[in-house]
Specification:
InterPro entries: Asp_de-COase-like_dom_sf, BFD-like_2Fe2S-bd_dom, BFD-like_2Fe2S-bd_dom_sf, CT_Nitrate-R-NapA-like, MoPterin_dinucl-bd_dom, Mopterin_OxRdtase, Mopterin_OxRdtase_4Fe-4S_dom, Mopterin_OxRdtase_prok_CS. By secondary structure, the chain is α/β, with parallel strands linked by helices. Helix content is about 30%, strand content about 20%.
Length: about 950
């Protein structure tokens, strides 16, 4: 069966311009995007802007979204099905029929020999809802196992469990517009300025317009803290103690909403009994590490403010107590009735573009589709009856960490991984490596040919990428948006739902005769409404769910193609937005009692504490300009300029204690693994803690896969891993020399093997060249002897310029061809290595002048002007040094003034928080 496209991408003529409204594929904000394709004689050019009519962003895009066009090339794509593991050197191209027949046969063999639970799937919040629905239907209703989990387990499953405990259903009850009406916004465990920058800008605009009081609760002082009125630097893992303390304070000081509690909630007495140890604000201060003064200010402000929005994200969810953390926050909102009202609610912010869509279709191992429960026999019968399927999963499957442990132990014989890279992203990531090495049969669907995970694939299937996919996604405010294809798909690439249908049909299963994503969406909508009692007719909650798409069940194909961004529930066609923009306004929750439940939460210390052997706590997270494991954002030179290398943020006093120098290499170890990172000394992190980003993988760095170190302990309820609290030790990583190598695009394959033989390296994309940061333990003299092997440009057509100074430990090499810069290598003490942006800029020149040659060989720019310093504004390439100099020279006091002078912050706005921080630093200097 061939895929029939929803939007026909007809053969385009020269000079034709087409614009398509679609949705950004990055974070859970779910921004609308306008993608314009211009067809010329030499090909097609794609440009991306924000969709001014989309209610999630109204035209704004962050730096990642603004650079989406950079990620659409085919150079890293898998373009046809492949058989054989790359690790064994047996990979070869095949056709779709052969590949899907092999998968179907292997799955049937596993079922016949080992049983249905011997097969597992690990999928992704990067899937569209239609893909997600098809694979969950196949696994739970036809293979008859619930062994399907998703990388969303790693970011929001704790919030899901907390919502179900408190509300009876997995619901985010508010909308983004509520942040614009709030009087107080509390950001818990969220570096919103970097991870959800468009929503952060909406909050900052509300603060500017109405003086919203902003609180940030985070162990680190991040960019999000720059404009906050109050930063609470909480000790890792102590959020339950903080919010239990707030709950006790609210009760003792008579800030409870007694009518709301009596009419719409239950369980308060039991919850209060469990929080008595936090009845003393002094005890809360000691446990959380937050000063009494700051605690008192926070408690009083929350108590006295009616419109409070509490946004919580990964710092809450990614914890061995993540579910209790989320419920302790929700408890405070229930106690004060700050829910279901304009500008007042707890708000879980998801990390991925379709984490919410995955929740709708039962994407987790312990869920059924349409917000139905896997352990409920009535719900099992409902779903099986609707699907008319031969089987239905009747017990929870294995969650992510347990799933890969089962793969390693041999319980799982076959696994299909879709749109994710678990060898990088899971905790104790080397265990995932071992598991896939041992697994009898591994299928991977991806757009990238080479990732840390695809190398273990027995079958590698080419999926569609952003721009080629067609379907829907749901963002963090329950808003369904179309992700519409605007590019022709590569000939061999297919939608993930299509590959599932091929395997299902070859296993003899009916029910998968979809022609397109529209067919799947309509079935998904109908299941959501099937035996789902409308709210206004509710007298029993047996099958009532707020998740209901009844009003979309009769969409025509044309209506689906033109579907406007829509929040659920959609009880009827033509429903006005204000009906569902915030839920629970009528006090109706999804529990059988129709009441919300207070959940008793007990403050506990994190599992695996620091020790003499591992005296520091590692916290991991995202950075501003990268996404997940960099397989997409790593393709954009613009996104590699802000934080180019894997790094570790450490307090200067800890650095001194352990012999770490700023900018030098350091080794970080836990009981699970280790990696090598660049030290970044910062007062923004507390003593005893370090921070490292999650993004780097073995394709772009020698030893920076931070998942290897991460504590694999999980929340007992949600199964979400503890990414924020891993005991580690650190030490300097000594090398004989460090250097930087640039190789023009198209030539990097010539140096790849030599680079990867270095003891440490990082690969960085620039506009016209690939940059490698290098270090090795061979002596400089031994390295110089092998320069020709490292740089194999020995043809007489290449011109070499060399500078050797053994006494200064310098070795410079520049290679040109027909006046064009091909490569340059600098080995020197760190302070004498050249400005990276300056060297990168020379690769843009078609021919180098004599002065440029001299400067390039010397490793020093012709101009004596100051370096830009660390890049702050990626859009306009404005560095820290120029911003600081301009602030001081012109006595600037507002980021808009900086934008007026330098353009910095004037495009996507992702750097505005950092600019505010620089203004504050300069103002502090003035005061001194």
């Amino acid at each position: 069966m061939n895929s029939i496209p929803i939007v026909e991408l007809h053969s385009s003529t020269e000079n034709e311009i087409k614009t398509t409204q679609t949705t950004c594929p990055y974070c859970g904000v779910g921004c609308g995007v306008s993608a314009t394709v211009e067809y010329t004689a030499t090909g097609q050019k794609v440009s991306v802007t924000g969709d001014v009519n989309h209610p999630s962003n109204y035209g704004r895009l962050c730096i990642k979204g603004s650079n989406l066009a950079d990620t659409l090339g085919l150079e890293t794509r898998v373009l046809e099905p492949m058989l054989g593991r790359q690790t064994l050197g047996t990979r070869q191209a095949t056709d779709w029929n052969t590949a899907t027949t092999l998968i179907a046969d292997k799955f049937q063999q596993c079922i016949d020999q080992y049983g249905r639970d011997s097969i597992a799937f690990y999928v992704s919040g990067q899937l569209l809802t239609e893909d997600y629905y098809a694979v969950n239907k196949f696994v739970k209703g036809y293979l008859g196992t619930a062994n399907i989990d998703t990388n969303s387990r790693l970011c929001m499953s704790s919030a899901v469990a907390a919502h179900k405990r408190a509300f009876g259903e997995d619901l985010v009850p508010a909308s983004y517009e509520d942040f614009e009406h709030a009087e107080m916004v509390v950001l818990v465990g969220s570096n919103t300025a970097w991870c959800h920058p468009v929503l952060y800008q909406r909050i900052m605009k509300a603060k500017e317009d109405r003086d919203v009081f902003v609180v940030v609760i985070d162990p680190r002082f991040t960019s999000t803290c720059e404009t906050a009125d109050l930063h609470l630097p909480i000790l890792p893992g102590q959020d339950v103690a903080l919010f239990n303390g707030l709950l006790q304070y609210l009760v003792k000081n008579n800030y409870s909403d007694l009518d709301f509690i009596a009419n719409y909630t239950e369980g308060l007495v039991q919850a209060l009994e469990q929080t008595e140890t936090e009845a003393s604000i002094t005890a809360v201060s000691q446990r959380t590490g937050i000063s009494l003064e700051k605690l008192q200010q926070f408690f009083e402000k929350f108590s006295q403010t009616q419109k409070v929005m509490t946004l919580f994200s990964m710092g809450v969810n990614q914890s061995s107590q993540g579910v209790d953390k989320a419920n302790s926050i929700i408890n405070c909102h229930l106690l004060t009735g700050k829910i279901g009202k304009l500008g007042a609610a707890p708000f879980s912010m998801t990390g991925q573009p379709n984490a919410m869509g995955g929740r709708e279709v039962g994407g987790l191992a312990n869920m059924l589709a349409a917000h139905l429960d896997l352990d409920n026999t009535a719900h099992q019968a409902l779903v099986q009856g609707f699907w008319q399927s031969p089987y239905i999963a009747n017990q929870a499957g294995l969650k992510a960490v347990d799933l890969f442990q089962a793969v390693e132990s041999g319980k799982i014989k076959a696994i299909w991984i879709m749109a994710t890279n678990p060898v990088v992203s899971l905790p104790d990531a080397d265990q995932v490596k071992r598991a896939l090495e041992k697994c009898e049969f591994v299928v991977v669907s991806d757009i990238c040919k080479d990732t840390d995970t695809t190398v273990y694939a027995d079958v590698l299937l080419p999926a569609l990428g952003w721009g080629e996919k067609d379907g829907t996604v749901t963002n963090s405010e329950r808003r369904i948006s179309r992700q519409t294809a605007f590019l022709d798909a590569p000939a061999g690439a297919k939608a993930d739902w299509w590959s599932i249908t091929q395997v299902a049909q070859k296993m003899g299963y009916a029910g998968f005769d979809y022609s397109n994503s529209y067919d799947i969406f309509i079935e998904h909508a109908k299941l959501s409404a099937y035996q789902n009692i409308p709210l206004d007719q509710r007298d029993s909650a047996q099958h009532f769910r707020y998740f209901n798409l009844q009003g979309l069940c009769e969409l025509s194909l044309k209506d689906y193609n033109n579907l406007a961004p829509t929040q659920w529930p959609v009880w009827q066609q033509g429903q006005t937005a204000d009906v569902v923009s915030r839920l629970f306004s009528n006090g109706q929750f999804s529990h059988a009692s129709a009441k919300a439940k207070f959940i008793a939460t007990v403050a506990k210390n994190p599992i695996n504490r620091v020790s003499a052997e591992y005296p520091l706590i590692l916290n991991t997270g995202r950075i501003r300009d990268q996404w997940h494991t960099m397989s997409r954002t790593g393709l954009s030179a613009n996104l590699s300029t802000h934080r180019a290398e894997p790094y570790c943020e450490i307090h200067p006093q800890d650095a001194l204690k352990f012999g770490i120098k700023d900018g030098e290499l350091m080794e970080v170890k836990s009981k699970w693994g280790g990696c090598i990172l660049r030290a970044n000394l910062s007062n923004n992190i507390r003593r005893g803690q370090i921070f490292a980003p999650i993004h780097w993988n073995d394709q772009v760095a020698s030893d920076a896969r931070i998942g290897k170190l991460v504590n694999p302990v999980v929340d007992a309820i949600s199964g979400e891993p503890e990414f924020k609290h891993t005991p580690v030790c650190i030490q300097p990583f000594y090398t004989q020399w460090q250097g930087v190598l640039y190789v023009r695009e198209g030539f990097e394959h010539l140096v790849q093997v030599s680079v990867q033989n270095m003891v440490w390296w990082t690969k960085i994309k620039t506009a016209k060249a690939v940059r490698y940061e290098l270090a090795d333990r061979k002596t400089l003299s031994a390295t110089v002897q092998h320069i020709k092997a490292l740089l194999p440009f020995t043809d007489e057509n290449y011109e070499w310029l060399n500078l050797e100074d053994p006494t200064a430990h310098l070795s410079h090499h520049v290679i040109l061809k027909d006046g064009l810069l091909i490569a340059s290598l600098y080995i020197a003490p760190k302070v004498l290595l050249p400005d990276r942006d300056w060297v990168s800029g020379l690769f843009k020149r078609k021919r180098l002048s004599a002065l440029h040659r001299k400067a390039l060989l010397a490793g020093s720019a012709i101009s004596s002007s100051n370096s830009e310093g660390p890049l702050v504004c990626s859009c306009f390439k404005v560095g820290k040094n120029r911003i600081v100099a301009t602030i001081k020279e012109k006595k600037l006091s507002h980021e808009k003034q900086v934008t007026a002078c330098l353009k910095a912050g004037g495009n996507c706005g992702s750097c505005l928080a950092e600019i505010r921080g620089l203004i504050k630093s300069c103002q502090t200097e003035y005061a001194e």
